[in-house]
Specification:
This protein has about 160 residues and is mainly beta. It has 1 helix and 12 strands. About 5% of the residues lie in helices and about 40% in strands.
Amino acid sequence: MRSHQAITSFLGGELSPRLRGRTDSERYREACEELTNFFVLPQGGIFRRPGAERVATLPSRSRIIPFDTEDDDYAVVVSDVHVKVFQGGVEVYSTASPYSVDDLAEVHYAQDEETLELVCDRVRPQVLTLGADGAWSFGDKAFEAIPQAQGQTAA
């Protein structure tokens, strides 16, 4: 008759297939073959990960970009219709988007404090800024000097 031993510590997390059968290892006794949708606590216990909550209906082709500040976390949604900013599931800013559906996969971004810069080959660089007063702005990135190739003049 086969007996089962209760596992009371999951500090080993998910067991690598290479460690299957290594019953002599301490990690073997503190691990699971599969640990899906759970988080391991530092004390060895586990708990289910929280579920997702629908907070908005987005266009079918959208790009979600994280925007994290020292005080708050936001989600920036870029689509061919709008650029929207959400905080805690609430839309806090919306404006027209210069991007087409074909541009969405090509949009690259970088954040520096309260400024998110978005670049794409077919659209001028854009800047999304959170002002000190909490007001958002979005538009073309202003350049002090635009580099020109030798012999080329600015238009």
